[in-house]
Structures
1.
Amino acid sequence: MTEVGAELPQEDAVEVDAVRVLLIEDDEVDQMAFERLVRREALPYDYAIVGTLGDAQEAVAEQRFDLVISDYHLPDGTAMDLFAAGWTLPIIVITGAGGEEIAVQAMRAGAYDYLIKDLERKYLKILPITVENALKKSRAEHELLLLSHAVATINEAIFIADPSGEVLYVNDAFSRTYGYSRQEILGRDRRLLWAGGSELEVVGEGGAHEQVECLHQRNDGSTFPVLVSRSNLPLLGGRAMAEVGVVWDITQRKRSEMALRESEERYALAARGANDGLWDWDLRTGEIFFSARWKHMMGYSEAEVGSSPEDWFRLVHPEDLNLLKAQVEAHLDGRTPHFENEHRIRHRSGEYRWMLSRGLAVRGRNSQAYRMAGSQTDITERKQAEQQLVHDALHDALTGLPNRALFLDR
């Protein structure tokens, strides 16, 4: 019960803006006293007054109210009937004779507070603070209800354990993830979830919060990798700390990481074992990756060739450069299905060697190329063989002089 004469604690004051109040009071004098209080104190109440439970039911059906103030004794029943009808609005009960006993009954039934009438109506002096406290309690309960509902329906498994590790709470997702019912897990040590009893790796820390990757164990004995986000929150009294854990099953992520790692290993092995040089051009940054084999084909070490297109083009024979650039541009513009060009590149020794370069662009949704990768093959011996065949066909094998075929061609 809120005592007569109590003052509103300033540090806890909550501004009440246009509070919708329903007063259920059959005594006209008490009705007028309430209205005088609202006007005199300039209380921000948008109120309605009814004299019976039936009228109150109609008012609630037609309008929205934040709070109900009800006299206990009414012409068609008592305030207890409001609780029996399942009203969820915060209700303050006002009692007269026998008030203490009735007030206790009302509080047990679900009243947020109660006031006891007196002949001088001093109870009205503390009515505003009583209303404010009831609203604060109602809002807190509503927020707690929403939070509880969110925790219960979230897809991630959640557990709360006391400082000794004893599980105090789990949500429905926890039961689905681990195969334990609430009855089976509550009161048991949370460490039974850890496969082998040990954690694997702390991946993030921040004060009372940390993230741990571990191998967890279900009720049936099967194991799976998880990411556990753990926070410490004070229990009632503030001395002991409870551990709140949110668990994500990262099985699919680990599989993806493994597949990516295997793919990268395959690519690295292929790049090292291939006879051809490989290149990968990021068109967004303008950087090109040249494999070690690509550089060694021209006699250069890895540090002697940079990562820009010019580091490639400056090695190309001047007579071949324009055609190479034109064919690269044609493919990037989408005018050719793939890129292919034969050109000469200057070896570190100063000689030129013939290279066959092939590539393919990767395009986004707008068909704009953002990446181009390919290979480079040394075809110097093939070019020399082709030139030798042409020479042999046009020259005498014995003397080396031009033959009839070259004479007719010229």
Note: The first helix runs from residue 28 to 40.
2.
Amino acid sequence: MLRLAACLLAASLPAALDPGAVARASSLWPLAQTAHPYWVPRHALLVNLWAPLVSLSGCVMVLAPGLLLALLTRGADGAGRWLVTGLGLSLAGLSPLVELLEAARGRPLAGPEFAGLVLACQLLAAGAVLGKLRQGGVVRWPPGEPGAAASLASAAVVPFLVLAVLAPKVFWESLSDDGAHAFEAARLLLWQPLPFWAPDAGAVASYPGMKTLLTRFPTAWFIRLFGEYEASARVPYLLFLAGLYGGLLGVVQVGRQEPLRPLARWLIWLGFASYTVAMAYSAAYNPYHADLALPGAEDTLLVALLFGFAAAYLRGETPWVVFYAVLAFTTSPAGLIGVGMLLAGFLLTVRPVAPRPAL
């Protein structure tokens, strides 16, 4: 347990110690107009290696408190479910905590202060797990299951490779209309507890609403951590992509007697790679200018939560069913539709499972 907490803390340090790497990479945006923007050798160390590593470190930083708390619950049954449960708990815990602290102090919580808060949450969550262990309680240990190493390694390596390859698009490309809307809505959270525009803001006031507000909170985390750069609105996609992978693994492993082979756990990423290309380049009104900030991040988070919902339903874990349904409902208008379609499909094809009331 101490080794896991230490590894998560160590993985968070690059983002805590050098968040400016994202700003430095973003400042090289004129290189986007060169003949070969995807490979500029003299800046490759920063743009294709260090800045992506710092970005991924930021994802680990905000995910770690949820991962540690998930060890205390049934949501950590398996490496895949552990990832999506950790994401859900971080969303549900960090979001209100940050907003409450900002409201109490009357100014944004950003830079080293925000990083310090999240690291403190990691330590508190680790303390809660250690306290339960010392009292003789049961703590689940998904890193020790067969095949977990392949799952967790791929969930770190593949998002890093995605960002390293797509670095010019993430760090240098101007935000699309949707991406700019998502970015500006997230910036509202630095000054108010909810990302809602004033009614006199005009057409932009229609987004986000109660059914689309959740994704703006993690976007605001990265704005606080890295600064007001386009990349801060796109890096959350990597966080949600890891959750999407974990959610799918959680569904696949329901009822399986044997764990998936390590190769199968890596091959799942082939589908997610093609999905990422579509979200980065084609999922927009303009076929030549899509943006991972929106709809990429929002749609990815929604599907990850729906996978979490499906796994919980198939296992008969009623509290987790409700938890993921609420998160999905506040992520996208399609959340209610997705939950409804899953329930309809389950009622028609799956034998009822006795509910498990305890987390």
Note: The chain is about 65% helix and 0% strand.
3.
Amino acid sequence: MRPDKYLILFAFLFIVATGWINQVHAQITPTRRPATETTDEDTTEINKAQKQDSILYGPNTTHYILEEDVKFNREVPHDIDTTLLPVYNYTVVDRHKNLLQDLGNVGTAVTPVFYIPPQILGVTPGFDAYGYYFMDPKEAKYYNTQSPYTRIEAIFGGNGRSITDVTFSGNITPEWNIGVRYLGRNADKQLGAEQSKGDRQTTSTGFNFFTHYRTRNKKYQVFFNFSWLNHKVEESGGIVHDTTTLLEDLFDYEDARIYLRNAYDRELRYNLHVYHQYVISDLLQVYHEADQQVQKNEFHDTNLKSETNDITEGDFFVRKTMFEDTTYDATRFSYLQNEVGVKGKVGDLFYNFYLKYKIPRFTYRHLMGRYAKTEQYFGGRINYQFGEKTAVGGETEYLSLDAYKLHGYFKSPFVDATYLRQRSLPSYLARTYRGNHNSWYENDFGPVDVDQ
């Protein structure tokens, strides 16, 4: 199914769900006698009953949980945030405490300032520059609302910069909630703009549809989540710097000369995620988790010859291996992953053991064949809680002698300590790549070792 068909499906589900919620609320509205049959005594009794049974809707009648709260047996509802403290954290960099670095505009490529160990032991595509703009299904908030809940965040800045984040959620029944989130990012060019307004550098649209259902006795729970991102960025190649450029000219910004005027890259990513569990007893629960994800990365330059016209020394692209006038490089990474496991609590000890089966697929536009190797993991977690604020625990995951993880931690009000020993496989991009401006084949890189 094409992404635009998913949008149509989301719109349809959203309209149906909204109408259903309104219908449910209409059905629970108390019925009243006709005015001609209501006496003064009846009216007084009705008013007393309504005051006694009425609910003051507000922050205390809307809560949310995270999937990991349920998975790790710490299901404590979270209150919605009504403070104004984080409103000035606009960008992805701001919201990660400035531990990331971008290219100076909303939606541009992002990389961590400090090294972060890989989160996945097996193979990855290696295209991570826009991963922080994707709404990770495992970080979704699942609400429990006594009245429909809407959260709207709209941020507008200079040079056509804007961020819009809207969430709507409502309960169909006390046990079943649905919701949808929209996240849009747009920004005009700060370098090399050809018009004062509307010459976009970033155009990004993301949707997230989520639902959570549990039985009344909470024996069974299921989380369903679908995330979709279409992220496009016009690339400038940076400010032209040659022997005739003065230092102060590098800070003209809007008037600065740039290398590229016909280049852009795009990331299209979507993920279908399901988690459900059944509680046999406090000592034993069984669960299943499934993910299907597709990530497409493209780079286009529709007129390579014109890119050199504004550059006084040499070409921006040092070499062109296939086409002299146009570049269209593309990759597609997808995987299907299933995890089954058992978990439970013995007193203050939480345990979890699981098996995970992953089928990845990776294709290049300019290379024949599909790169794929099935991955089978097994792992476990333990956590022992000493009171409310002190805990000790660890986790392990094993794929092969070339890919495993050992992680231990101790947390207390006075000191926290963690240790990580990990080996992970290099990405597809590091091993093999063929594009119009670069290529390398079957690099025999060893695993990445991390001690932290």
Note: The chain is about 10% helix and 45% strand.
4.
Amino acid sequence: IELRVASLAGAGVPESRLVYDNHDVGSMYPLDWSPDGAWIAVQLTRADNTGQMGLVSVRDGSLRVLKSSAWLGARQLFFSPDGKHVGFDLPAGDTRNDQRDVFLLAVDGSREAAAAVGPSDETMMGWSPDGTHLLFASDRSGTVALWAVPVTSGRPQGSPVLIKPDIARRSLGVTTSGSLYFGVHAGDRDIRVASVNLETGALVSPPGTFVQRFVGFNDSPSWSPDGNQLAYLSRRDPLGRGRVLGIQSVDTGQVREWQPKSLNIFQGPSWAPDGRSVLVWGLDLKGRRDAFRIDAHTGDTTPTGATAGTVPQWSPDGKKLYSSKHIEGNLKFFAEWDLASGTEREVIRRENMGPPFLSPDGRTIAAIVDESQTSSVLFLIPVAGGAPRALLRVSRPEALDRRHVAWTPDGGAALVHVLDKGGEQGALVLVPVDGGQSRKIDLGTRVWGGFGFDVHPDGRQIAFVAGENKAEVWVLDNFLPALNAKTSGGNRQ
């Protein structure tokens, strides 16, 4: 990971200059510039998963670490107008979770103070241009609103005051004239369900939005084994915070939501064969990777003990898990975990291989491999061992989305997502395992890649993600007079 800067002066494509490069750093995000342009605030993660918040010198690339912890993860940080302090948000307590508090820290590391803490979820939003108030978003009033707390010499003074209800959390900062810019999610990309004829690929009834809660933030649909419930992942805002496992009844529309407090982050989901729990993969509060079982009726979360990679799959008898594990570079292998004995067996290893997707009978794995810069291939891999078989090859400019494959309930065909030229959307294609003719499935709309799709056990419905992915930048003007009036006592809330 490299941190670079580029000048916007002159015509044509700007040239970039390397500022910071360290092979021990696995990820790094620039958060803000110091007012004098001499420093860039960054959040980075070391190879040992240690999180660090620091300042990188634009002149010589040196790193000044401000905070370091196994759980540290600042999402938004802004320098005070005088450049002497930074305000930022961190997970509440010594854990990785989605509830966050806001803090103040002197850039020389001499003093830290809590600016907004408590049972609510706070997000750093910026400063008033004169540096007398720190701005933050909070759900303490029931909905996410903009608040301000007076600050003197890097310490909060007095109680926060409400500035504006109903605001998005993604701040871009405050201008010197006092305008707050922020990002807003305005799209309707969400889970759709369409009825289709898999034998002909024809659309039977047009797709409709299945989940009516938090529309635009739901994805990764998975039908229960009996087809009576749909599990999905729900995000509460564009930053991916507040991840929730949702389970909706097909018959009644009733929704159960579980937010595992013991997990920092999770992906998935997929149902257990008995339909009593849902399998997800992710990290616990100490950053340990595992596959986790979430009880569909209580939300209780337990680790399986399989240090799984991406998209773990249950065997039909529920006794084994299959997942991919990273070795080095682009090399991965598929592993089989016996949950009773805790033993692991390698099924196959290969470069540029996507996650495994187990057939309904548990005998075959479907996976997509990017063979070169020009083609991607759907392979069928025998679980018991043996040579993989290429089933479908797609050449550029199209590509197979290797992040997801679905099986028909009878195991007679696999569904893959063929991406359009250079895009993240495309069409689903049904590929018979006996070598028959592949055919496009008409869903009445294009499908978004990376968000999963699933075939209903009746073989007549497909859940997928479609819609418009739209983001907007908004500006909030003229809030400083209201702020000054409230803090001076001229306007009661």
Note: Residues 480-487 form the longest helix (8 residues).
